[in-house]
Amino acid sequence: MARPRIKDVARHAGVSEKTVSNVINDYAHVSDRTRRVVREAIEQLGYRVNLAGRHLRRGRTGIIALVVPELDIPYFAELARHVIREAEQRSLTVLIHQSGADRAHELAALAGFGSAFVDGIILSPLALTADDLRDREGAPPTVLLGELLEEGADHVAIDNERAAHEATSHLIGLGRRAILAVGGRDDAGLGTAEARTRGYRAALSEAGIAYDPAALLPVGSFRMPDGAEAVARALREGARPDALLCLNDQLALGALRALHEHGVRVPEDVAVIGFDDVEGGRFSVPTLSTVAPDKAAVAKVAVQLLQDRIEEATGPEGRGDGPGSLSPQDRIVAHRLVLRESTEGHERR
């Protein structure tokens, strides 16, 4: 049986082919009744839109790239699932690229991989600098996640400083005062770790707790072995914390292992809280308290903002005459503190 074409849908619905095209492209001036009749005809005939042809007629490929440092970090895997779901709802295909936090790979992504096969890029950078973003003439539209490298760049994130402040304040409210920041980074940078460290320090200051630079435990990367090694080293060197603020859940899960191996009870002796609300934290022993970013919202806002940028660059009909009026967006999405066994139920007074 021949595959139904747009003219078959038009004949079945009793409308013109142009009207069918308008419904498929979701043009606003089509009446609700006509839209319903055409969609019923599409469903009854089993018509499928030729997305590749539609995108190419608009001067686009219908492909966007999601570039993350490491795919096996659970946060990025979970985020990718949400981005793919949002893109599918907009008839977009997602190419996933792993940068390895390498500047050359991130620069290649920023330039569109040296090709015109992606319409835009959602990028979670770790190695790029603000200067890398300033000279991008002819490069695809880009939305940054997490790290804020340039005030004028499109950017989607949670309020990391506020979130760390809330998490640290919760620990202080439990009577904890010797709080180590695993992965903390004490400088003036715009990165996620720096923002979370500022929130941590602000909460200490508000509670009248003196800040000790030695309370920041540096890590080589934000993985479980790094969290375990940093905490084990601190314990060997005589640190006696009663709480850990870990700058992601991977570090926190590693920290739980190190505490267990050193006979430290969680949360009786040391309360532990992380960031990201990854699935593994819901099954650890004890379960992990965490700052939960709204990953679905991050994906939705990023994909929508990128689609707006693509429309701006090519125009709604792909003529390359977009209005160019969309100012750079710095979009903050919600987060919440999820309290589980690693902090709950053991106050100190």
Structural key phrases:
alpha/beta, elongated, 12 helices, 6-stranded parallel β-sheet
Determine the mean pLDDT. 88
Globular, elongated, flat, extended or rod-shaped: what is the shape?
elongated
Task: Give the tally of β-strands.
Answer: 12
The largest β sheet comes out as: 6 strands, parallel
- Uncertain spans, ≥5 residues at pLDDT below 50? 318-323
Which structural category do the helix and sheet elements fall into? alpha/beta
Series of H and E elements:
HHHHEHEHEHEEHEHEHEHEEHEE
The termini sit apart by: 77 Å
Give the count of helical stretches: 12
Beta content comes to 5-15%
Helix content: 40-55%
What is the C-alpha radius of gyration, as a whole number of Å?
25 Å
Instruction: State the strand order across the main sheet.
Output: 2-1-3-4-5-11
